[in-house]
Amino acid sequence: MLTALVISAIFGWVVTLALIVALLALARQVGVLHMRVAPAGALTTSGGPSVGAKAPVIAARMLDGTVTSVGGAAPGAALRLLMFVSATCPLCKNLIPVAKSFARDERVQLVFVGDDQPETQRAMIERHGLGGYTFINGPDVGQAFEVGKLPFAVLLDADGVILSKGLVNSREHLESLIVAHEMGVHSVQDYIESLKPELA
Asked: Which of 7-21, 37-51, 98-112, 167-181 has the lowest mean pLDDT?
């Protein structure tokens, strides 16, 4: 009886030690995988003005009929985020509150750009509480930046230079625009491409 208990205890310790070794090996593999998996970033597109170039200066019309200037210098606004959205885009509806929170936390001036019927845009503004934001409605800005898919964001500095841009659908994507600018790269994807030779 005593021999069986001793054998059972020894077997229990062996199993416990094996599980600890397996857990450490798994933790190491997760760490390696974490280093190799690329962070998600805004998906850059080839069309439109390139990152580092001056944004086109466009006289754009707002919903109330007044004309505002998009692009160009904007003294007093360190960073501006042009957020291209549509009332018919499900991702846009989910991203609008995220963009508002992001702009508030990052102290970025947020400008919404759409191209829907005025009544549709007014309904969206009311639904999402966008009354305090500049909301441009018309095709001119989207055409100038060659925006083909939504939601799309363009980050500008106070001089109207395009710092980063891309398709976005999460806060992580919006943050990648700031990160790309701070790292001095065009996009997170460019940075990852530069790391591939080191990871190979």
From this structure: 37-51
Q: What does the pLDDT read at residue 35?
A: 45
- 101 contacts 174 by C-beta, under 8 angstroms: no
Q: Which residue has the higher pLDDT, 200 or 57?
A: 57
Number of residues assigned to the chain: 200
Q: Where are the beta strands (DSSP E) in the chain?
A: 58-61, 67-70, 79-84, 109-114, 134-137, 152-157, 162-167
Q: Which residue segment(s) compose the domain that 179 sits in?
A: 58-199
Query: Does one domain contain both 75 and 164?
Result: yes
CA 136/CA 119 separation, integer angstroms: 13
Question: Both 29 and 63 in a single domain?
Answer: no
Q: Stretch 124-143: mean pLDDT, rounded?
A: 92
Domain count, the chain: 2
